[in-house]
Amino acid sequence: MDAATLKAQQAPLKDSYREQPEKALITLRARGSIDDQSIACKVETGRAIATAGLHPATGGSGLELCSGDMLLEALVACAGVTLKAVATALDFGLTGATVSAEGDLDFRGTLGVAKDAPVGFQKIRLAFELDTDEPQERIDSLLKLTERYCVVFQTLNQRPELTVSARTV
Asked: Do 86 and 74 form a contact (C-beta atoms < 8 A)?
């Protein structure tokens, strides 16, 4: 896809959202069910069922997906798609790119071993390896725009309002 095709595809959506902002507010959903045989949750991905379980550092077998890994994978996927879309829109010469994310966890927090150990990622590092001949100022612009428009990155960075609820069935 080239810049003109991308812009043509997005133009009617952007116009519609400018005229009727409420059309741009969409609720995405994820759903899963706990496994009745093991400590796992089967998540509907839209394409298949992904089974998430405990990380081996918390007693898991390693056979199921770790939700922490899935979070990093979602960040990589979103950042990669955003990078490609921004590069396309800017006519940025990008032959190829690799996106990676890594995050640091202290499992003492998750397991309740140390009350002073936080639960969750303490640091997340997102990195790009770009195959390009573009000048550094264009690379900087590409990264700035990718960071700005990557939904998962911005969600982690801005901390949305979170709620938890439960109901019996």
From this structure: no
Which pair of tokens denotes residue 60? 């898991």
pTM of the model: 0.86
Dig out the tokens for 34 from the structure.
Answer: 């706990």
Per-residue pLDDT of the chain (169 residues; tens, 9 = 90+): 888 998 899 999 999 899 998 988 888 777 878 777 777 888 888 788 889 998 999 988 889 999 999 999 999 999 999 999 999 999 999 999 999 999 999 999 989 998 999 999 999 999 999 999 999 999 999 999 999 999 999 999 999 999 999 999 9
Tokens of 128: 């790009």
**For residues 79-111, b (16+ Cβ closer than 10 Å) or e, as one string?**
bbbbbbbbbbbeebebeebebebebebbbebbe
Nearest to 103 by CA among 75, 132, 83: 75
